[in-house]
Design a protein that fits this description.
Layout: E1 8-13, H1 25-32, E2 38-44, H2 50-62, E3 67-72, H3 75-88, E4 96-100, H4 102-106, H5 113-131, E5 141-143, E6 147-151, H6 155-166, E7 170-174, H7 197-210, E8 214-217, E9 220-228, E10 231-238, E11 241-247, E12 249-252, E13 256-258, E14 273-275, H8 276-284, E15 293-297, H9 314-325, H10 330-339, H11 342-351, E16 357-362, H12 370-381, E17 385-388, E18 396-400, E19 403-410, E20 415-419, E21 423-426, E22 430-432, H13 436-443, E23 470-472, H14 482-502, E24 504-506, E25 512-514, H15 524-528, E26 534-543, E27 546-555, H16 565-569, E28 575-577, H17 582-592
Parallel strand pairs: 1-2, 1-3, 3-4, 6-7, 6-12, 7-8, 12-23, 14-21, 15-16, 15-21, 16-17
Antiparallel strand pairs: 5-24, 9-10, 10-11, 13-22, 18-19, 19-20, 25-28, 26-27
Helix pairs in contact: 1-5, 2-3, 5-17, 6-7, 6-14, 9-12, 10-12
Length: 602
């Protein structure tokens, strides 16, 4: 595209009352029309609506616009929509500029409408100054190896691997244990069906094993990763050897493990104090001792006791195990239980007392969703006692002779009481696996505050990492139920399949560019780059007919995120960030400072 006189069109959005309720939008539009190079200015109730997008397309064609600015709300969600609209009208999308006058203006100045209006004018003026210096850009395509790596052979990992394999992509499935199945292999039954856990996932294991596109590596771990999206070279170690493969995408489904609450409630000190996972294994292996009374203690080590978070799944799993103890198949009676009122529950308890007395000590039962709430109602109707305790006054476990004793304060009766159960089951939270920290460093992906893997955006990219080409699902992300893990696995596989199916990824053209003639090869940019997108390589230069070898920096556009750190670090100014050049930023700053701006500012 030839450099032509800027013809800028500005579209100011009311955003309903989000902007228009605090900013005088008509006054802003009148001001914008006086700015240099602005040949069209208009306002819309909702610029992101169909009529607003049509107005942008029509104005580009009718007014011969070669720059477009939209002043509205969140760029994270709306900028791609407006860029696509510009492309539909034949305008390079990098000739579009977004000005956020909702989060940056109206929302933070709700009680100052006059100042909000003036600030909106200034923000748009800054956008106009920068837009006048924008240049069209071309996005580079990076080829993608149509293979995938899935870390973790649990339900989430197997589901993701099978989904990718069924789409025709060769997939490596790495599991550290000697068998597939993950955490679910340790469970007795599933609350959703009441069926044996291993029996329930065996068909999935069989499908994965039989699929010719899946290479299963059990008793194996990821040893090394090099490369970037579309071109990862991975080394997997196990079974006395190493496997090296090139893959285009990686899915992390490494799962979680149960927290061992050493020193809490007599765990590790008294024989009949076990965790919920150990209890389920005892049930599964038929080694559960004869008991007449069992006490479950919820939030053992969770919600501020040792760890800060709620593990979400403990309450439902404890209720499932409790219901099995009293001898009723819970899933088959769930719908009926939802309709049973207090009168029928009292009648059921009075006429059929449970053979095993079960008490669940809790800080408040978390059974979210209709199905889980019906399960909770059913448990109460079966005679299972729910005793609430506070964090300040938790139950205490001791031993008197050969008997366990729980001392607790009954919050309902406001009295101190004791009970002597045959078995105490601690519902402990799921925690991240020990290998996660090393894996996060290897893959260059973050761990959150609770040590689980941290997604790129909780709403917009919940199954992606900030590192492109690496995806996330299952309990490696956070404690989830099996059905949720399966949904996430399908989602992660869907996300991973996009670049694999396309055969390429298109790097956004806001990346850094190195001027090799000015580069002195000092390596400052390599050291500072948070994405490891820059490397030094040997280059040959000719100086007075003499060929010399020297080091020069180069940027990988597939990895670069355009953060600009290298630009300000370079001591000789050899690096430029496309679409955010020094002249463009300087022009906007000078407007903000009240300094007149002219084209060609350096």
């Amino acid at each position: 595209m030839e450099q032509t006189e800027p013809r800028i069109g500005v579209f100011v959005c009311h955003c309903g009352v989000n902007i228009g309720g605090f900013v005088d939008v008509p006054d802003v539009v009148r001001y914008v029309k006086t700015l240099p190079n602005v040949v069209h200015a208009d306002r819309n109730l909702y610029t992101c609506a169909d009529d607003g997008l049509a107005a942008i397309r029509d104005a580009i064609k009718e007014r011969d616009l070669n720059r477009v600015i939209v002043a509205s709300c969140t760029p994270r969600t709306h900028a791609p929509l407006f860029k696509r609209t510009c492309e539909e009208a034949g305008l390079n999308k990098y000739l579009f500029e977004f000005v956020n006058i909702r989060e940056h203006c109206s929302w933070v100045h709700m009680k100052e409408p006059e100042k909000a209006t003036e600030k909106a004018k200034m923000l748009i003026a800054m956008g106009v100054a920068k837009a006048a210096l924008l240049e069209p850009q071309e996005e580079e395509r990076v080829p993608v190896e149509p293979k995938a790596l899935v870390l973790g052979g649990g339900v989430a990992g197997m589901t993701a691997a099978l989904s990718l394999a069924n789409q025709g992509f060769e997939t490596y499935l790495v599991e550290k244990e000697d068998k597939l199945g993950g955490f679910v292999r340790n469970l007795d039954t599933l609350y959703q069906t009441g069926k044996d856990a291993l029996e329930s996932i065996t068909p999935l294991i069989d499908k994965v094993t039989a699929n010719k596109n899946i290479h299963i590596l059990t008793s194996s771990t990821l040893k090394d990763v090099e490369g970037y999206i579309g071109n990862y070279e991975v080394t997997m170690a196990g079974n006395g050897g190493e496997t090296v493969a090139k893959v285009g995408a990686i899915i992390v489904a490494t799962g979680a493990e149960e927290y061992k609450p050493a020193g809490l409630y007599g765990y590790g000190e008294y024989e009949n104090v076990v965790t919920l996972k150990e209890f389920e294994r005892m049930e599964k292996e038929k080694t559960l001792p004869a008991t007449k009374s069992v006490a479950f203690i919820q939030c053992a080590g969770a919600r501020g006791q040792v760890l800060e978070y709620c593990s979400r799944i403990c309450c439902t799993n404890a209720i499932k195990s409790a219901m099995k103890l009293v001898g009723t198949e819970a899933p088959e009676t769930l719908p009926e239980a939802g309709r049973v009122g207090r009168r029928r529950r009292r009648k059921a308890v009075a006429s059929a007392p449970p053979e095993v007395e079960v008490t669940i000590f809790n800080r408040g039962i978390t059974t979210y969703g209709v199905e889980h709430e019906l399960m909770y109602n059913n448990a109460r109707g079966m005679g299972i006692r729910f005793v609430k305790y506070t964090p300040e006054n938790p139950p205490e476990v001791s031993r008197e002779g050969d008997r366990l004793v729980i001392s607790y304060h009954n919050e309902t009766l406001k009295t101190d009481q004791t009970m002597s159960p045959d078995l105490i089951v601690l519902s402990t939270p799921l925690v991240q696996i020990p290998e996660a920290e090393e894996l996060s460093k290897m893959l260059k992906v973050p761990l959150g505050r609770d040590k689980f893997f941290f997604e790129a955006h909780v709403k917009l990219r919940p199954l992606d990492f900030a590192t492109d080409g690496i995806y996330l699902c299952g309990t490696a992300h956070a404690p989830v139920f099996i059905d949720e893990a399966i949904y996430q696995a399908y989602g992660a596989a869907s996300r991973a399949s996009i670049p694999l199916a396309n055969g390429y990824v298109q790097a956004e053209a806001i990346t850094a560019v190195v001027d090799e003639e000015r580069c002195i090869g000092c390596g400052s940019c390599v050291d500072i780059c948070p994405y490891h997108a820059i490397e030094l390589s040997e280059k040959e230069v000719i100086l007075e007919e003499i060929t010399l070898a020297t080091r020069k920096s180069s940027v990988n556009p597939a990895v670069c995120k355009g953060c600009g750190t290298c630009v300000v670090t370079c001591p000789v100014g050899a690096i430029t960030q496309r679409n955010f050049t020094t002249p463009q930023i300087t022009a906007a700053i000078k407007v903000f400072g009240g300094v007149p701006v002219s084209l060609g500012v350096s």
